[in-house]
Amino acid sequence: MITVAGSCAAVLLLASCADEPADLPYGTVQQMMANEVQPTADIYWGAVGSSSELIDGKPVNRDWQPETDAEWQAVAASAVKLRELANTLGSPAYAEVRAEGWTDFTEGLAQAATRAEEAAKSKNPDAVFEAGGTLYSVCSACHQAFPPEAPAAGAEPVDMTPNR
Ligand code: HEC
User: Fold this and answer.
1) One GO molecular-function annotation for this sequence (predicted)?
2) Separation between Cα atoms, residue 26 and residue 3, nearest integer Å
């Protein structure tokens, strides 16, 4: 697996990557969110869903959910990975520099991820949908409590709408 820390080490050789402590396994929180947390959550959120679109003026509804054991396992694995990421976010390297309350949210994410894993193991699409909603509310709650410190000038707002 290529970790952000690994690529940071590579960048260090070029003498940039300046103010990033080396003991952050996934780089800054911003990098970890963009490179690990969001893509992993997207796997979970994308697993079960429904859509409706007009084709030749007629509504066409589509539902999807994992079909094979391997597909269900991949969904459960994404929840396990989210829990690991949550625990890393709650570790001293990431938590120490944050205000009080940070670990409440990382623990909340770990718990939501555990419920999400159980839902995937039960192979119940409704439970996965529900657990995905709970996950999303934990993401949002932390983002409200800990907004980005200094948004880059002209940065696009980040779209974290669940992919369903
Ligand atoms: C413990 C708090 C916390 C939790 C829980 C959390 N985030 Fe974040 N997230 C942050 C912080 C802090 C930032 C802002 C980082 C910065 O820009 O300095 C952020 C930023 C982001 C970004 C923007 C990254 C960028 O490119 O600027 C995305 C996307 C994101 N989070 C996704 C998620 C998702 C998806 C979840 C839930 C599965 C989640 N986050 C849960 C704290 C959290």
Assistant:
1) heme binding
2) 6
Q: How far is the CA of 125 from the centre of ligand 1 (A)?
A: 26
The percentage of the chain sitting over the pLDDT mark of 90, rounded to a whole number, equals 75
Ligand 1 centroid–CA 156 distance in Å is 15
Q: Are 137 and 121 in contact (CB under 8 A)?
A: no
How many CB atoms lie under 10 A from the CB of residue 112? 23
Ligand 1 atom nearest to 112, measured from its CA: 38
Which domains, and CATH codes, for the chain?
A: 28-145 (1.20.120)
pLDDT in tens, 95-118: 999 999 999 999 999 999 999 999
CA geometry: angle 9, 151, 133, nearest 5 deg:
90
